[in-house]
Queue: 3 jobs
Job 1
Amino acid sequence: MPAHLQDTVKLNNGVHIPWFGLGVWKVKEGDEVVLSVKNAIRHGYRSIDTAAAYQNEEGVGQGIAEALQENNLKREELFITTKVWNADQGYESTLQALETSLTKLGLDYVDLYLIHWPVKGKYKETWKALEQLYKDGKAKAIGVCNFHVHHLEDLAEGSEITPALNQVELHPYLTQQELREYCAKKGIQIEAWSPLAQGKIVEDKTIQAIGDKYGKSAAQVVLRWDLQHGIVTIPKSVREERIVANADIFDFELTAEDVAAIDALNQDERTGPDPDNFNF
């Protein structure tokens, strides 16, 4: 069980990823994302998750560069994730997409490169490109996002490398139990995007009541629930006080009863698209 914001979990290729990071989906390019990244790193975060599709990689890169200097950190002390967008999937186009992302981020490599969505007829070819990027050292680990079990099984046919991680929508209303069990068997780390169901979860009475017991917010309870389930989590915020509060979850532990009560809230309810039915 992680005891500190900078604690890590070992992926199936030996690379260590922090249990907790900052997501920057919908964080505006420019000052907003630069400041978010700098605030997070200054307050002890070491993992930043972006994507080509977020259109804020340049700002993330600027935030990283300034934070490294201001906090006297080395590049290798950070864990940076980005993702290949659907329109860039395919072999050559994926190789080029990472070059573009690296240029924008101002980095020589990323720690984790992910396929953003399982684009039918494309993702296996895209995976071949990720395997090459991994061998070339441009990505220290490779993985996928939004892959169901059947996508992972299909990908396994004819590929050399098992994804290190599967980043999926996951929160108490969408607990992804079957997928989590499958990934655990295959050694694929689960990471939660939208861990707070885009804010819906903080209104939940069960979660609020559990928070009251510990003097914690509903958001803190859910993020703690992620960690106790062995789920890497990347909540997004642009407000410094929220960035700090989100990470203030290492001084309490949910009981088995608390965890079970939160598990029981599952409704298989998505805030984002279903990976079997998206049109972008």
Job 2
Amino acid sequence: MNRKVSLLNQYWTDIYFHLHYLHKEKISHQVVRILQLVDKQDEIGVNEIASYIQVSHNTASEHVKRLIEKNYLIKRRDPLDERKVILCLTGFGKEVLHRNTSLDEEKLEQVLNQLDDNEKNLVEQALKILSDRAKQCM
């Protein structure tokens, strides 16, 4: 593997390890992936979830049912095609996803306060470039 790729992965895991939120909910990695998919993509249904997490439609449907029961997701009908069900994050689902995938903003702010303005700009620019390119990979 390319040394730079390995270094970037190590930096990312170090950053996440030290700056993530303490997790309140017992939530599986698969549930996090489902919530991320619903958050990051438009008009996600059970079929897209099944394909994304590589399970059967019935298994994905059971996952969705449990996430609705936990108030992480809601179903709504597509206004253009009433037969189609679209999944959306609830406000609580957005909070759970944020706590399980984002950096703790207070911890991050403490780190950023240790940087000068030039360093802050470099970090922001680098992460924006990586984010933009990552979105093109989908």
Job 3
Amino acid sequence: MRSGRGIDVSELSPLEQTALLSQYARTLDSRWPQPILGDPLAAEIVGQIDFDFDGLGVPKSVVCQSALRTKMLDERVRAFTSDNPDAVVVELGAGLDSGPFRVDVPPTVDWYSIDLPGVIALRRRLLPISRRAHSVIASVADHSWADGIPSQRPAMVIANGLFAFLSEPVIVAVFCRLTEHFRSGELAFNDYGRIGWFSRAAVKLAPQRMFATVGAQWGYPGFQDARVPEQWNPKLKLVEEASLTHAPEIELFPEWIRLATKVSGMFETSARKARILRYRF
């Protein structure tokens, strides 16, 4: 899928280009007869970009997991903002995600989408304008990423597919920075469990360009015990560990992916390979 008449994204860095992959996965889901996430803006955004999306070779299993983890994070944002209508939502590594327009949050909630300069420039060209939706140029590797975001309001901080691309010191610094800046709130993100050498090798050797793109940027092998972040920052308290393999939406997966997912969910180690973790502070 490449029109040659859309927005040129050739100047994006390799890390910034991972935002295109995530957006295309949401687009493919939106085209299914029974979508898992059903993002109404996904295809519209992708359709305005000049990029060989088909060449990424995004498999259906990745579409399923990407759509489901996004939906699960949406649900947690929706619940938090319902209880805290004066909240701020902070999406780290937001990419081109249309969360501020997809998730039905109270009109008093401000949504801050943080990402690198090239991605934010795309967001400002492609996404609708809203006085409650703010696109912020910042690298989460810099201590200043939270500057300018209200600190006294309850904060729902989310990250979707981000932490695998960061080093452990950067992740630890992010977790510490959020409790320094925000008075109270929650942190929710998707996690892959511990990624061993075999999985990393499989990603590098996979024929799809998508995996080559991801594998080249992979930065953190992950952890098995969901309480590890509590050791990094004692102000964080684990309140939820939810495996995607146990979500009811897996009934919408294509048959062979649905069966494989159910089998994975029967074993603790494999169930941890796709989960949402949520912490309160």
